[in-house]
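Morning!

As promised:
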Amino acid sequence: MRDRSELEVGKSNLPDESELELGLGLSLGGGAWRERGRILTAKDFPSVGSKRAADSSSRQGASPPRSSQVVGWPPIGSHRMNSLVNNQATKVAKADKEEEEEGEGKKKVDEAKDVSMKVNGKVQGLGFVKVNMDGVGIGRKVDMRAHSSYENLAQTLEEMFFGMTGTTSREKVKPLRLLDGSSEFVLTYEDKEGDWMLVGDVPWRMFITSVKRLRIMGTSEANGLAPRHQEQKEKQRNNPV
Amino acid sequence: MNYFPDEVIEHVFDFVTSQRDRNAISLVCKSWYKIERYSRQRVFIGNCYAINPERLLGRFPCLRSLTLKGKPHFADFNLVPHEWGGFVQPWIEALARSRLGLEELRLKRMVVTDVSLELLSRSFPNFKSLVLVSCEGFTTDGLASIAANCRHLRDLDLQENEIDDHRGQWLSCFPDTCTTLVTLNFACLEGETNLVALERLVARSPNLKSLKLNRAVPLDALARLMVCAPQIVDLGVGSYENDPDSESYLKLQAAIKKCTSLKRLSGFLEASPHCLSAFHPICHNLTSLNLSYAAEIHGSHLIKLIQHCKKLQRLWILDSIGDKGLAVVASTCKELQELRVFPTDLLGGGNTAVTEDGLVAISAGCPKLHSILYFCQQMTNAALITVAKNCPNFIRFRLCILEPNKPDHVTSQPLDEGFGAIVQACKNLRRLSLSGLLTDQVFQYIGMYATQLEMLSIAFAGDTDKGMLYVLNGCKKMRKLEIRDSPFGDTALLADVNKYQTMRSLWMSSCEVTLGGCKRLAQKAPWLNVEIINENDNNRMEENGHEGRQKVDKLYLYRTVVGTRTDAPPFVWIL
């Protein structure tokens, strides 16, 4: 498997490698996701800053863009932003866990307790996992220890990335893990072996011990996930599966 | 001066350390130019593409300390794609080839790789000091090279970098013979830390003055570290999740009391909301306090801590302190020079933790205040006018009202008059950031009064090109102008091309400049690099017959003596 840094969108250190970089670029200028059937280069990376539509509408007297919808705003350094967002996510997760534990002996509670016992303290291999969303320049990190279920995680991610795509549409992002066509996005993850999988297929406990990175990608991309996955592997120098 | 031998003149020059002064000296005459360049040890390069390493070394062959800045400021807010540029590798290669006695390297917003760090660590036997701010592209493996190979390392200072943490053993790569550390800052690392190696390292570093830990260093380790390093001056706490009754906590309390030199406190990257009373005993010595990452700590605990900090000169805090807390700051911290208040609620949920009242209170209570960065939900002209009256000494004034285009919340007027009062009163103002609803009028004030202004950040402001023209014509000392989402176009851009010779750079994104306008500018000014960053489908721009009128999404231009750079990625057009 290739060094994971090469697969990650936007992480090329050497300029001449950008031609070979695999990207899941999706143009967000018109709010529509486009099909990609070829290896993408840096040229195809979507605009992260394009919000002309929001601008012109605001100057024409329509409601001004809300702080959370404008890319690169408020002007807070990305390092600080990541830290702040992760703190909020942890708070939400903790609050959720508390709520669940106050409930009536649900299975989730047991699982949550189970997980939290296992992950209490600083368990090796768990901790902050990077999350990238296609079309969004800023990556995030989630603390896997702070979550107890897929619902939990999905909620955190929704809050993290809501409004980050720079579109003017206020359509709320649906639960990300479901590939049921109701959402524009799916949540995928890279496991310990370097394979990209859809999130939700394995028990939560198994998931958190094997997840290395998360990626939110467009449904149209994920449809081709299996064959594309094969394609990716064939193009790598290391042994194919 | 002409009658003195060169060595005497050189000795005199040794006392001139500021880069600006040394630049001025070198312009006096040929002989001074020559003496100055051979004796110059520190060079600051604000834009790594304004010059290249060969020319730098040609002029300053005895360089010991180099500072380089790469990406434009708005890269901090993800407006510049990762691959844009700012690679340090060619610089390190050139410096290594020249066999320079490099001792210090400070980089900001540059792309640094493990390969670069390895080369750096092996090429300069006297290397002492590495400071990386907002850089990216490297991993803890690179840090391991620095630790292992730099025998005389004094400073390893990593501030807010994006570092891939391989959870390796970089800390144990410091050899046992390494006892020279003065600064060790790894707060931005996200992974596990080898606590044993860290403690051993701290224990054998008697000169250690600045230690900033990451979130993986728990409270009991902190206590042990402070016992090893009571001479510490600058401490960044990692994790601060404490049970006040535990033994670790008691140990920490005892250790803190012994740190009588502690002047600067920061970190608390993971903090439970429990009080900070363990630190109260040393608060009276603190000159700098940065709690801007401590989102968990309640405002009441912050206030209790600050009440003890009478000598504070610098305070970075979250808005959870509230207007009440700022009033406490105003009445306690009479030595305060710099204040930064960061937001906790980014979703604009209407949380009015700090308002214009907090700002006014600070301005009234802190006579030495000269730098402020203030995030808030609302502001009024009246408040800004009062602030200007109270504090005519501002050098840096950055106000960020979270909602773009928000007017004075009492009068619904634009905030032109408020900012106008600031620039009129603050005759030494060098840096200004605007926000809220603003018309061309504010720029007229800026052009008229802000004579010392060097850096101006504009977002969602202005009505016509006149706004930008006021600034370009009026602010003679302007060096960095960055504009986003404002209706300034080609007329303003092209009005005075030679102005850009006196500036370091201009950034304009989501404005009204067109590709045709940028091309004309590039033609008129061959000494400028005019870069268009276009992440959309490039082909659209070329095929479109109206390319002259095609609006440019991101424009970045800067003066340079070395022409077009060769490392630009495909989506950056250099005209």
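The radius of gyration of chain B is 25 Å.

Hope this helps with the figure draft.
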